[in-house]
Amino acid sequence: MKTLRLLLGDQLNPDHSWFKTVREDVVYIMAEMRQETDYAPHHIQKVVAFFAAMRNFAKERTAEGHQVRYFKLTDPKNPQNLPDLVKQSIDQEGCDRFEYLLPDEFRLDRQLKVICEDLPIASKVYDTEHFYTTRDALELHFEGKKQLVMESFYRMMRKKHSVLFKDGEPAGGTWNYDAQNRKKWKGTPAIPKLTPTHSEELSPILHEIQDSGIRTIGQIDLHNFHWTTTTEGARALLAEFCEKLLPHFGDYQDAMHTDEKTLFHSRLSFAMNCKLISPREVVETVEKYYYNHKDTIDISQAEGFIRQILGWREYMRGIYWKEMPAYARKNSLENKNPLPDFYWTGQTRMNCLKNAIDQSLESAYAHHIQRLMITGNFALLAQVHPDEIDQWYLGIYADAIEWVQLPNTRGMSQFADGGIVGTKPYVSSANYIRKMSNYCQGCAYNPDDKTGEGACPFNALYWNFLDAKKPLLQGNPRMGMMYRLLEKKDANEIRGLKERAAAIIADPDAF
Ligand code: FAD
Ligand code: SF4
């Protein structure tokens, strides 16, 4: 009896029960496949980081005594797709049983089910032992309810897992300190930087990707590579985050600044999404650090961080599995426009977009509010088709895997799901961008002007969006104030705003 076990590139959980014992009768397979590099144009740093993490993981398990067959991208024996990899490995290893871990992507889940149906041998699927919740936990929590409000799910999670929860009460007496998480960063003092974790393996990986002709986007500088590709590195990053950045994480969660591209953010998403480190370990470490440093760290900082992981991350996963596959086609606002070319080049005079996009192309990273308030906001105001925006978000960020990217993009950012994730579209004019960043100071456009050559494009687009989507959004109670303000505008002003918006939408790359 011999068992073949498959490990996908985002299933690098070293604490999984599979690895508790070394078994002679088990062979693990891992492969860097064109099937995965080519289904969307990925950022070059994302591909390098995945392969580096996979190679490190294979080396570590091999050193522990596990039998790992690893197929590098350029290995002539690598079939480059999952069905052939599984069939070929079963034959070569003489296996009579196939096992795999639950994939997080619908695409791979479906593919593996089909593969197993065709196999002449028995197969079994195991949990990845990574998330707090099962795929259907959100659906069960909201059974019979119309609204899937994140806050309700988050409170259940806090209670159930006893996180920042003492004597039947939320620690500090309040569930959510979101209202305190909105300070603007003034530019000084300099924020401590997290230490990047390098891996010696990066250079050959990069050459193999380049030599294979894989189409990638963005830039890479191996001396300035910030993705953590080992569990040890992820734990070190988490410890450094707690010490240097947690004390102000919540305060500046929604801030943006040209000189501080990562502000107080942890950059843990890639390591967590590959499962190098578990959400439970991250949450428990942060909670413990907070309790040990209560005299210097306010609860709003720890709660703000924990909410992202125990709340948003698990919630988004639940939404994905509840709503797929229909979710990937939703376009409730009927948006049709193409994504401006400047999303791929950063060539625009709009300073906020230029900063957020340049940074994304340079580092495969943008923090949450840049993704939401700058690139997401503009795309929604310009009424871009959600398929085009999904492709961009799925490719450009190192942490982008469909189960988390899709509900964030189609749901939270684009309202294409008609209100499953958010209660209203996340749109803003220049005002809020100016309030939360220093972008407007260096911009070619004036955030105070709505029409005319030098007026900030976000302003005309904002009012035009409200007007254009009136039939779809007017009944939304959370949009009432916006529509009352729109109604106060006279016909001439509306005409001017709409003319300017039409010019921007017709040729956004000219702006
Ligand atoms: P921090 O600010 O330090 O937050 C800590 C952790 O909380 C993150 O590492 C992440 O695991 C989790 N988290 C925070 N916000 C969210 C959220 N909304 N949903 C799920 N988890 C969250 N996150 C991804 O991991 N992959 C994606 O592909 C992705 N696409 C996004 C697309 C859009 C349009 C938006 C608005 C957000 C997206 N996010 C995505 C969520 C969030 O922007 C990133 O998780 C975060 O910026 C990662 O940086 P960080 O590790 O420094 O996060
Ligand atoms: Fe962005 Fe408008 Fe501010 Fe320029 S003025 S940075 S385009 S919000």
How is the secondary structure organized here?
Blueprint: E1 3-6, E2 26-31, H1 34-37, E3 42-43, H2 44-63, E4 67-71, H3 82-93, E5 97-101, H4 106-118, E6 122-126, H5 137-141, H6 150-160, E7 165-166, E8 169-170, H7 202-211, E9 216-217, H8 231-244, H9 269-273, H10 279-292, H11 299-323, H12 342-345, H13 351-363, H14 368-381, H15 386-396, H16 402-413, H17 430-436, H18 457-468, H19 470-473, H20 480-488, H21 491-506
Parallel strand pairs: 1-2, 1-5, 2-4, 3-9, 5-6
Antiparallel strand pairs: 7-8
Helix pairs in contact: 2-7, 6-11, 8-10, 10-11, 11-16, 13-14, 15-16, 18-21
Iron/sulfur cluster binds next to helix 13, helix 17 and helix 18.
Gist of the model:
By secondary structure, the protein is an alpha/beta fold. 46% of the residues lie in helices and 6% in strands. The chain has three domains: 3-126, Rossmann fold (3-Layer(aba) Sandwich), CATH 3.40.50.620; 137-191 and 245-323, Serine Threonine Protein Phosphatase 5, Tetratricopeptide repeat, CATH 1.25.40.80; 342-510, Orthogonal Bundle (DNA Cyclobutane Dipyrimidine Photolyase, subunit A, domain 3), CATH 1.10.579.10.
